[in-house]
Specification:
This is DUF695 domain-containing protein. The protein folds into three domains: about 5-120, no CATH class; about 130-225, GMP Synthetase, Chain A, domain 3; about 235-360, 2-Layer Sandwich (Alpha-Beta Plaits), CATH 3.30.70.240. The protein has eight helices and 16 strands. It has helices spanning about 20-55, 60-70, 100-110, 170-185, 185-190, 215-225, 285-300, 325-335, and strands spanning about 5, 75-80, 90-95, 120, 130-135, 135-140, 145-150, 155-160, 195-200, 210, 235-240, 245-250, 265-270, 305-310, 315-320, 345-350. Strand 2 (about 75-80) and strand 3 (about 90-95) form a beta hairpin. Helix 1 (about 20-55) runs antiparallel to helix 2.
């Protein structure tokens, strides 16, 4: 049974900080991460071990909660006591809030090496057992069914459970999220699940048992992985008020895939060889590819290109970079030599990858 401090999972969260405020918050968070692991090394680990071994892990909950909240008040944490030869596990998680994924990953990156007594994680594993408790009511996993709406690289899920009856406000939605996390694990849910809905009414014939969902999400993952095991790319087609649009996107388009890249850099590149539909012609395509390769090379691992949209005589390149590096300025400088029009570069702090969610299908 997990012991920890968790807050109701937020269904959406939007941050609109200036770059200075983001940087200040990042520095404050990093100092809190250092303070946490100093406390752990100087006695916290021993007290936590003794508390769990005695069966009274709640003794250290207030102390750890205070330290985790100093990293970010929105983070959640939990102990999973040792069992079946596995060590105790300490997890600090973003709990489904994409903007907090970077803070949780930085906490984990500073953790000591796992040993026979302790392991560390920033994602909840699937739980052992057959039920979870929410608002003092038992939600059996075998009573839950799901309706899965599969897209190219995500699954929208409607969760049905008779235990949702009587839950008020957002509680049914929160319970649905927690059920998915418990059965599938947080990584699968954050990576491949899009919209989550809750329903207490009996589902139709297209529903499957909740226990089938991990297999479905695993198959979706395989479908979006190339032969080398790297993320695949999808080609999308659409129509806009400015004409046809073609997008090429790396999947999955979620912050969990690269939480250290928390700054969005939009590079808008005009091209002169424009086909009738507004898409680039054969004279402009080689130059556009060379420019994209050049920009990626300049990043040297401090960011990546996750997508490109071509429409109405311009290609919009979506980059995510590490805000603690000068990567955004490197991109700006590298794009100056383009000879088919003026390139514009727009920089936005976006740890939740909200700027590309319209391309997640």
């Amino acid at each position: 049974m997990a012991i920890g401090a968790a807050r109701p999972r937020q269904l959406s969260r939007s941050l609109d900080f200036s770059g200075v405020r983001i940087e200040t918050a990042r520095l404050r968070s990093d100092r809190a991460v250092t303070a946490f692991w100093r406390w752990w090394a100087e006695g916290g680990r021993g007290r936590a071990t003794a508390a769990l071994d005695s069966g009274d892990g709640r003794r250290v909950v207030p102390e750890i909660t205070s330290l985790v909240e100093a990293i970010d008040p929105g983070l959640s944490w939990e102990f999973v006591p040792a069992a079946d030869g596995e060590p105790h596990r300490l997890t600090v998680t973003a709990a489904g809030v994409p903007e907090l994924r970077g803070a949780a990953r930085r906490w984990l990156a500073s953790a000591p090496v796992a040993d026979a007594t302790w392991s560390y994680a920033d994602l909840r594993e699937p739980v052992r057992g057959c039920a979870m408790y929410f608002r003092d009511r038992r939600l059996g996993f075998d009573e839950a069914e799901v309706v899965v709406d599969l897209g190219l690289a995500r699954a929208d899920i409607t969760v049905h459970h008779p235990g949702f009856a009587g839950l008020v406000g957002a509680d049914a939605s929160i319970a649905a999220y927690l059920l998915l996390d418990a059965v599938c694990g947080e990584e699968q849910v954050e990576t491949w699940v899009g919209v989550i809905r809750a329903n207490a009414i009996a589902p139709g014939d297209d529903a499957v048992a909740l226990g089938e969902l991990p297999r479905i999400l695993s198959e979706l993952s395989v479908d979006n992985t190339d032969e080398l095991g790297d993320p695949a790319w999808q080609i999308l087609h659409g129509d806009t008020c400015s004409g046809p649009l073609v997008a090429v996107v790396r999947v999955p388009l979620v912050s969990l895939s690269a939480p250290q890249f928390d700054r969005h850099v939009a590079v808008n590149v005009p091209y002169t060889d424009v086909e009738d539909g507004g898409l680039p012609g054969s004279l402009s395509l080689p130059g556009l590819r060379d420019l994209e390769d050049h920009l990626v090379e300049r990043l040297e691992g401090t960011g990546e290109c996750v997508g490109a949209e071509s429409c109405d005589g311009a290609r919009l390149l979506h980059f995510y970079v590490d805000s603690t590096t000068p990567a955004h300025e490197q991109l700006r400088a590298a794009a100056c030599g383009w000879d088919q029009g003026e390139v514009t570069v727009t920089i936005t702090d976006d740890p939740g990858w909200r700027k590309v969610q319209h391309l997640r299908v």
